[in-house]
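step=predict obj=3-hydroxy-3-methylglutaryl CoA synthase n=430
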Amino acid sequence: MRGILSMAAYIPPYRVATASGGIRTLAAHDQDTTTLGVEAGWLALHGRDTDEIERLLFATTTPAYLDKNNASAVHAALGLPSAVAAVDTGGALRSGIGSLLTALQGGPPTLVVAADMRTGRPGSDEERLGGDAAAAVVVGEGTGVIAEFLGCASSTLELMDRWRLAGETTARIWEDRFGESAYLGEVSEVVDTALARAGVARHEVRLLVSGAHARAVTAVRRALGVKTADELTATTGHCGAAHSQLLLVAALEEAEPGDVFALVSLADGVDVLVFRATSVGARPVLSLRDQLASPGHTVTYEKFLTWRGFLTREPPRRPNPARPTAPSAFRHRDWKFALAEAGGRRLSTVHGTVTTYTTDHLAHSPSPPTIVAVVDLDGGGRRVTELTDVAPDAVSVGDRVEMTFRRFRTADGVHNYFWKARPERLGTGA
């Protein structure tokens, strides 16, 4: 049996209310798609032996780097063995479902990570309907499969319904009716082919339909006449290359043994993947539903624009931070990316307690003030670290914290990744 061995999603704790009354998720000022991918990957691997992973595929339409492999940083932060092949598969919305399909069709045990940060011009539908999130699944074979892969079908279209030129930060979109018509002309045949290969009928499945073209998604759900699951866009926005995996995670969290799902992705064609939930396995250590139910932090529209780079804050009157040097980062990569001490102890998985803290209003940050704390680590040790995902007036001595991989700053074209602390989510030892 081949299929999904474990899965998880990561939703940033920040939210922006939309004009239509919905909510879109928002990555923090110190996050990018690499750090989002690390969060989802860590949750998917929680409690598993990382030595079983032999391949990492990372998909995003908004990579932190071009030319440089972003999957390498995800690999390093997760502490995967050096023998694991880590490869970027991004650039297009279809890369998320494509990476998952590649892993399911054969090969070694694979961690498939998809992360995206979607935006548009200020005031546009793209800005309102987008979202930021990541999802990860472990694909392989054996008795531990929690969702059996039954079959698939695809159709590829050369379709200019959505595109973005190199160097641009927002997408261009053709008139809505064009994309809707193109997808509707393909989807029914592809769905029927996938279901036939899987050996199931339409009435036996629940559809999970993902697509950045909202009008096409609505039309497809209506045209197929099959019960469909929540598409999540009202609570997350559409999360780009990660959205199809988000829908799959959400469905499997609530699934009963024997439930059959057809994951339909509309992006430069149609991809349909069919799964059957088994009686084996457990829910993620931190569920997608619990993350969405959390009140999170509401962000003003001005702050949203600042974090996205559309507004530039007045910087502090201090020297600009220096970029990290490549030789030093390489020599200390185990500490910098995996937070691993010389003796092999990985502090990235260790929780701690705030013993004292200070609030700095002058440090370089797109979202001041910066909170710096001294944390006593469980099992011994103390370190000074920056706090994130918490307001200054919500910090107290005695607070429990855990580590999180973040982007401290970007200087001279180099992203400086390292670890911060945030309020504890999972409890000690989780």
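step=describe
The mean pLDDT is 93.
step=end
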